[in-house]
Hints:
mainly alpha, 13 helices, 84% helix, 0% strand, globular
Amino acid sequence: MEAMVDFFKRKGVKRLIIFALIVLILFSVRSMMNLILLTFIFSFLMNGLVEFTIARVRLNRTLLVLLLYTTIVGMLTIGIAKYLPLISVEISQLIKQVANFSVQPHDNKVINFIESIISSGQITDYIENGFSFLLKSFTDISKMSVQVLISLLLSLFFLLEKPRLIEFTNKFKTSKIAPFHSEIEFFGKKFSQTFGRVIEAQFIIALINTFLTVIVLMILGFPQIIGLAFMTFFLGLIPVAGVLISLVPLTIIAFTIGGYLKVIYLFIAIMVIHAIEAYILNPKLMSSKTDLPVFYTFIVLIFSQNFFGVWGLIIGIPVFVFLLDVLGVTNKDGLE
């Protein structure tokens, strides 16, 4: 009996049990996973923006938080009211354009070969899931808007009361559940330092890539620029695979409007943008611990997409990096 008690008192065993309990709790509230993930992402990104601004502008923290949230909510409201119908129409047109290309016969053997690879591979599932997710989000805007609004409100309250929340939470260190609190604190720090930082980096990289891609598409004369911009941004949140997946509809549209020459121009531009991401953005925003082999990246994306759908494509790599960090399978430099 004493040996069993000593076994469960070991730090590693206790940490594993608490981690399993956390996973069980999250699984039991999986219907609220959208709300939980959106709240965490908004809180982490806005906290980073607040800290970045406070370091450069002398302004009251509460006033700054309110100003930032008012600006973002105002921009979202204007964007939804003005551009949502246009985005829905353009995404529908993009889906029809890609579908029409697939059903049309082509005399070129190269095009037929590429089409057979696309239609038979995992890429088709990713594209269909991504497009259907975007279309469903825009058509079911009422439910999505409520989730985004609640997440923004929760993240707003978190940032407004962050010092008080930290002070209140620290009281658990001397409570009867102090061992449980210490493990939660350990996992919380690991989660924010890995998952949060990787999500933040993916978000910034996706924004920059979208900006550069939209400029290229406008120069090349692509139609449905706003729809393509949203598609590029959401696919840009998927590490490595997002670039490859976005190339499929972009290549089809380029071939439709300008033939092989337009496709070559597109490939050159995407290669330049990808080089900027790989050699400038990634080293600045990501640590070497997130530089996974491509094989691991695709395996993680395939499994996470299978279990969590479109969310799995976005959070699969950050969650995997978090698990690696918890298991100690990381370099000693850590995230920058």
